Amino acid sequence: MKALVKKHPGIGLSIENIPVPPCLDHEVLIKPRKTSLCGTDLHIYKWDAWAQKNIVTPMVIGHEFMGDIVEIGKNVKDVKVGDRVSGEGHITCGQCPPCRRGQRHLCMKTLGLGIHRHGCFAEYFTLPAENVFKLPDSIPDDVAAIFDPYGNAVHTALSFNLTGEDVLITGAGPIGIMAAAIARKAGAHTVVVTDRNPYRLILAHQFGATHCVDITHNSLEETMEKAGIHHGFTVGLEMSGHPQALNIQLEKAQNGAHIALLGILPPGCAIDWDLVIFKMLTLKGIYGREIFATWHQMTHLIESGLDLKPLITHRLKVEDFEKGFEAMSAGQSGKVILNW
Ligand code: NAD
Ligand code: ZN
User: How far is CA 173 from CA 184, 237, 310, in A?
Assistant: First the structure.
């Protein structure tokens, strides 16, 4: 079968012909229809320090997908061949204290699809049946293909009450843009989004951000004044992974504000702890999605009118994967879908 593989350490990826993986007793075999490129895949493509530390080659990459179940293991009961599915790419151990408390998103031995085990950028791949999410007909294929990052946005945005709040989102990547739409739908008073990339700020505006600030040219303080935010933001969503953005979140927070941190910050990122302590801020780290509470919220938000389709800016054949990574590297993309 065809698969997109990191074959050796170094820059790039290649399409290889490899055997269809065996489906174990507790697993299902999935044939993806559509997959989507994540920033993580770009890190692996570029073979940066994170990828070098985390990826053992050869590895089939990819974790954002939707497709059909084509085979089930002999212990699998709740899903069947022909089911149209997406799935949770965090594979949890079931044995650690958080797993045993029923909090799979806090698993201490989480393995990532397409990072620690072969991923979904292949004609067929396996997944534990307990990770499968059956898709209702209400979710279009394209949208289902980006359920994984959409879940990051929902998990982060809905970590704190947003109704009537003034929300600052730093970073208008695909996840920040989706979070803006979710915050508006949840009834936020203002949703201010910052980035340095005009292309993405336009998308954020289309998705319901009340104010977009290009921090290279415009002042956040002026925007806050115009928006009537005189005492700081009550909720922050850090979605850039940039230390400067985190520091802006802390500086612009109202006393007692809640800030959720999704963006992955570089090692040694420094903050002014006085801001956290004397403003009595609450910071919450976010990893992945709540399994499966977030997935149900995701589905219901779409069924109640949230439209993510305009975020999909590229639809490519798998063979054209390089074009997708180029667009992402240049910051000239929303979500990039690869059709199988
Ligand atoms: P992305 O890289 O596409 O978007 C990040 C955006 O932040 C870019 O548009 C960039 O221009 C912008 N940015 C850079 N510096 C900034 C600054 N100083 N102020 C404001 N904006 C700035 O990423 P994404 O796919 O949307 O993901 C968002 C972040 O979340 C990334 O850091 C990613 O690694 C991380 N992530 C975390 C998890 C998790 O489970 N914790 C899951 C997925 C992604
Ligand atoms: Zn566990």
Answer: 17, 12, 14
- Omega before 133 cis (within 30°)? no
Alpha carbon distance 29, 143 (integer Å): 21
- The finding on whether 143 has its CB within 6 A of some atom of ligand 1 is no
Instruction: Please state the φ and ψ torsions of residue 6, each to the nearest 5 degrees.
Output: -90, 100
What pLDDT, in 10s, does the model give residues 96-110?
999 999 999 999 999
What class, spelled out in words, does domain 160-285 have in CATH?
Answer: alpha beta
Helix (H) or strand (E) holding 274: helix 273-278
pLDDT single digits (tens) 51-60: 999 999 999 9
Q: Measuring CA to CA, which residue among 337, 253, 322, 309 is closest to residue 38? A: 337
CA of 261 relative to ligand 1 center, distance in Å: 10
Q: How far is the CA of 269 from the centre of ligand 2 (A)?
A: 28
- Domain boundaries in the chain? 2-146+308-339, 160-285
Distance from the CA of 265 to the center of ligand 1, in angstroms?
9
Quote the CATH superfamily of domain 2-146+308-339. Medium-chain alcohol dehydrogenases, catalytic domain (3.90.180.10)
Q: What tokens does 86 get?
A: 């997406």
Indicate which atom in ligand 1 lies nearest the CA of residue 243: 18
pLDDT tens digits, 236-257: 999 999 999 999 999 999 999 9
Ligand nearest to the CA of 98: 2
Pairing between strand 282-285 and 132-134? unpaired
CB of 245 sitting under 6 A from ligand 1:
yes
Predicted confidence at residue 261, as pLDDT, reads: 98
- Residue 82, classified by CB atoms within 10 Å of its CB into exposed (0-12), middle (13-18) or buried (19+), is exposed
Q: Is 223 a catalytic residue?
A: no
Taken as a whole, the chain contains a residue count of 340
